[in-house]
Amino acid sequence: MNDNPLAAVDVIAQISAVPTILDVVCKTTGMRFAAVARVTQDRWICCGVQDNLSFGLEPGGELKIESTICNEIRDHRQAVIIDNVAEDPHYATHHTPQIYGLQSYISVPITLDDGSFFGTLCAIDTVPRTLNTPEIAGMFTLFAKLIAFHLEAHDRTDQERQASELREQFIAVLGHDLRNPLASIDAGTRMLQRTVTDDKGKSVIGLMQKSISRMSGLIDNVLDFARGRLGGGIPIEQADEVPLRPVLEQVVAELRMANPERRIDSELTDTVVRCDEGRIGQLLSNLLANALTHGDPEGPIQVVSSVVEDRFELSVANGGEPIPEQVVKDMFKPFVRAAHSSSAQGLGLGLYISSEIAKAHKGKLQVVSPPEETRFTFSMPLR
User: Fold this and answer.
1) Distance CA 264, CA 317 (A)
2) Which of 6, 89, 303, 378 makes the best surface tag, with the fewest CB within 10 Å?
């Protein structure tokens, strides 16, 4: 609950059940004043009220905490029920009825699930009333629990809203603060590329541009990780009837160009799928980058797409050392690399992001790694 007691007035005002509860309390007991109060160590604040007694309290109004019985209820956490103050052996001389001219009184604690004390649901009148019955006591207890439930639901909603805002701010700042400096460096190297004529200078600029490209990919992965972990999953924009072969061919061509010394074979089917083509291209790019990094540098990498029954399948296979079983079981967790070598480059986010893309498409990403080859297979419904 918000540490500011006055914030409770706004929270109670947003609980639509409170006016009904107070109305039912008054009608069933005959009491002419009922309220929900926020009670702290030093404050009694009226948060919701039905006043047919002209008591004079409105939401936000306060009583001196030491003048109230609620001050005692906060300590002992028990209901206090008085049918007739004048005949009650304990409260006949109590200061609260004397201060406010009360003859009947009922108040039950509102306690949250974590054990914290919010305040009370109370009712008063200047004439005696019959209150101390199992039915009346049970009704008040039930209403107090209902108010506590709504308070906790409001807290959860408020926390989720604040967390959502924080996530969005974090992702926005992360993207802005990482991308902008890199964009400046990229623009600078492109400018230098047009003016540098010697081979050594061109070679250095080429290395810089490769580093920029790699950094850009790392930033994309970090942003996707942030969205996936903090924002409720990687967002996708699916379209119907997407021809995937051109997208996959483009990814393969780009990685062939970037790695001319490596052999990448592809066998791609012509089919249309309901998907986010950009994300599927990203998934393949991550899988190919993984194969290029960890596979046998002398052996080919095979990319195959096909339709099996009503599902689209895309696989990337490479030779090399099999992935240890203890690594396979954690393969799609963030910051886990496909190789057990600690010298492997990258953040270990590519396979995690690919797995999240698969889930977003109601599909799955699996890996098998027998001695002859390691194969990653993505499978998703066609529609």
Assistant:
1) 10
2) 89
pTM for the model stands at: 0.49
User: Which residue, 110, 130, 158, sits at the end of a domain?
Assistant: 158
Could you report how far apart the first and last alpha carbons of the chain are, in Å? 46
Q: For the chain, how many structural domains are there in total? A: 3
Residues 6+ apart with CB under 8 A from 175: 219, 223
The size of the chain, in residues, is 383
Distance of alpha carbon 39 from its chain centroid, rounded? 32
* Residue 349 DSSP symbol: -
Same domain, 154 and 167: no
- 185 and 146 housed in the same domain: no
Could you tell me if 340 and 303 are in contact, meaning their C-beta atoms sit under 8 angstroms apart?
A: no
Residues 267 and 297 in one domain: yes
Residue 283 belongs to some domain of the structure = yes
Report the distance separating Cα 280 and Cα 278, nearest Å.
6
- Shared-domain flag, residues 346 and 302: yes
- Are 298 and 363 within 8 A, CB to CB? no
**Domain extent at residue 57:** 7-158
Using alpha carbons only, give the angle 246, 250, 255 rounded to the nearest 5 degrees: 155
Up-side HSE of residue 143: CA atoms within 13 Å toward CB?
29
pLDDT in tens, 213-246: 767 766 777 777 666 665 556 778 888 889 999 9
> What tens digit of pLDDT does each residue of 161-212 get?
776 666 666 666 666 667 777 878 888 888 888 888 888 888 888 878 877 8
Could you tell me if 11 and 151 are in contact, meaning their C-beta atoms sit under 8 angstroms apart? yes
Q: What is the pLDDT of residue 342?
A: 45
Q: What is the distance between the alpha carbons of residues 63 and 72, in angstroms, rounded to a whole number?
A: 14
